[in-house]
Amino acid sequence: MPLPTAQRPRPSADPRLAVVVITHRRRAEVLAALERLRDLPERPAVAVVDNGSDDGSAQAVAEQHPWALLVASPENLGALGRDVGVAALERALDPPPELIAFCDDDTWWEPGSLARAADVLEAHPALACVTAQILVEPGGRQDAINVELRDSPVEGPAWLPGPALGSFLAGASVVRRSAFREVGGFSRRLWLGGEEELMASDLAAAGWELCYLPELVVHHQPSPARERLRRRRDGVRNTLWFTWLRRPLPAAARRTAHLLATIPRDRTSAAGVGLALAGLPWVVRERRTLPPCAEARFTALEDSQRRSSARHYG
Predict the structure, then answer these.
(1) Cis peptide before 138 (omega within 30 of 0)
(2) What is the pLDDT of residues 283-293, one digit of tens each?
(3) 110 in helix, strand or coil?
(4) pTM reported for the whole predicted model
(5) Superfamily of domain 17-220
(6) Where are the domains of the chain?
């Protein structure tokens, strides 16, 4: 029986922006996330992409949240589900919003943060993406990544409203749709796990800026339904693929050597490295090194990445 899906999301109180949520086999979490999005003062239009769930998630969303635009994918598209959500909003809304907030099924935006993000992006037309500080729930404690974002060593122009970033966290960011489209969205190759780094590098190469805005707040309550080993395997693979695709040879060698020296020596890591090596033929074909201005961002990040307590494969 076909799902009773909305053809259009509800009208937004702030037509500058909309939200894309991706979910997979987290029925309770996505329903709770949509309740919070529904009640935000910004009343954003929302597209939900169900990535091939088999737990009734799509049916529950259609029945309990008919105000949201539901796209029920028959397969798990990973991060590419966000591209599908953006495309669905473009078809459903006229005109489509220029700003897209991403939201995972176990994250939610603090009231007022989306409007503030829209104000900042509207005031800075060369800014492609703003990333919020993350509070881990329950308890509202600071995520360890916040310190790295705040103390980012990346140099940016003086007009930036916050610290310049080399990459971003998709579940806690608002992006400019035109910039997202310019670089082709998320990579189908990478699927999920560190997929933001490749897009961020292409944004930098195209002349766009990214920054951290601590006055924006996203809450994250990690779901117990996590494929921890698969995420680690794919994170290792994707880090290597990005490094080989975009970094100059000396930098690629440094990061590859550091990664291989620090990942756990187990089957999961070996599988990630093996998948990366298996992709070498297409990586070589599609390799395009960053221009010096963009590469400088990733060179600046090397030291902090080596010392990071938030970025690890343990």
Answers:
(1) yes
(2) 999 999 999 99
(3) coil
(4) 0.95
(5) Spore Coat Polysaccharide Biosynthesis Protein SpsA; Chain A (3.90.550.10)
(6) 17-220, 228-307
